[in-house]
């Protein structure tokens, strides 16, 4: 009997000693659960604030999750990367997003945003590789396929651009931005009829779509050689890409509107990637306008051009394409500056 009492007392003491351990474990689980709920709420608030350009609100929300308990979550690093991205602090943002992906490899938003940073840095090959991974994580998002298609277009990988852009349109049928890049891709492949189909579809939905209208004017000139009709599609000369500037300059020239043609062609003629046709065409324009002195200066400018300018021309063309691409990217949320 005495032994039984001793055993009973021992069990009571053991149970009493374990209670604080169980309590501590329960407290820790409760803390982590509450932290998870809080960081999810703050995450929604920060991302929505960034989308609408409410940067002060985003920073205020960020301050709510600065205790150590939040820093173990992948979402903490993602939010930090997002805030750094909005400030255009690319290197620090990349480091934070890579930490996110190390903790949670299938974090699609972090993967997508990492690709955005590479694109902003003109590193389109890295952007492409990153967005390939993003699309593997989330294969049904039209915006992910669109940005990947745009990266392929910038890199002149036109078959893969067409594949990705068609995937985007498969999941978002009336996605005009995807149709626009698809039309540009077809034009690069000299598939003018296919480009016209995509552009007609855009303009049917949105007759005021400036970029589609400008491209349609280029298509009309290539197909019909009708400068007058092509010029009806010109909405804003300042918004023209360099390829379209060449076409519309030719249209103005054929309509004997030489001053307008000269204004459009001038930046092309003086650029490193102007070919002999562009240069002779510009000389002809200057002479037609009676600008003999300017024609003479331009002739001497051509003669002084370096013989190794092919590399400069290609780099310049790539930078122009990259700038155009960044304007056309699908942005998840806004930049501060």
Automatic annotation (TrEMBL):
It comes from the Bacteria. Residues 1-25 form the signal peptide. TPR repeats lie at residues 142-175. Transmembrane segments: none annotated. PROSITE patterns: TPR. Keywords: Repeat, Signal, TPR repeat. This is Anaphase-promoting complex, cyclosome, subunit 3.
């Amino acid at each position: 009997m005495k032994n039984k009492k001793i055993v009973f007392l021992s069990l009571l003491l053991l149970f009493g000693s374990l209670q604080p351990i169980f309590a501590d474990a329960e407290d820790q689980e409760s803390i982590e659960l509450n932290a998870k709920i809080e960081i999810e709420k703050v995450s929604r608030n920060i991302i929505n604030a960034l989308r609408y350009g409410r940067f002060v609100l985003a920073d205020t929300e960020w301050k709510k999750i600065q205790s150590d308990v939040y820093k173990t979550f992948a979402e903490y690093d993602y939010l930090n990367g997002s805030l750094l991205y909005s400030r255009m602090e690319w290197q620090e943002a990349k480091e934070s997003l890579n930490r996110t992906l190390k903790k949670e490899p299938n974090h699609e938003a972090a993967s997508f945003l990492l690709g955005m940073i590479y694109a902003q840095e003109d590193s389109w090959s890295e952007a492409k590789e990153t967005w390939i991974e993003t699309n593997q994580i989330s294969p049904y998002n039209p915006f992910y396929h669109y940005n990947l298609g745009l990266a392929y277009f910038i890199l002149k990988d036109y078959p893969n651009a067409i594949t990705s852009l068609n995937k985007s349109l498969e999941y978002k049928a009336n996605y005009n931005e995807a149709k626009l890049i698809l039309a540009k891709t077809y034009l690069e492949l000299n598939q003018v009829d296919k480009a016209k189909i995509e552009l007609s579809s855009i303009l049917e939905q949105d007759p005021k779509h400036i970029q589609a209208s400008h491209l349609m004017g280029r298509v009309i000139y290539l197909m019909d050689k009708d400068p007058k009709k092509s010029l009806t599609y010109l909405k804003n000369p300042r918004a023209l890409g360099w390829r379209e500037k060449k076409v519309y300059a030719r249209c103005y020239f054929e309509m004997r509107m030489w001053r307008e043609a000269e204004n459009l062609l001038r930046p092309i003629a003086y650029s490193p990637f102007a070919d002999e046709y562009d240069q002779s065409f510009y000389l002809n324009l200057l002479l037609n306008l009676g600008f003999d002195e300017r024609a003479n200066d331009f002739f001497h400018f051509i003669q002084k051009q370096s013989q190794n300018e092919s590399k400069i021309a290609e780099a310049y063309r790539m930078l122009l394409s990259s700038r155009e691409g960044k304007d056309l990217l699908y942005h998840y949320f806004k930049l501060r500056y």
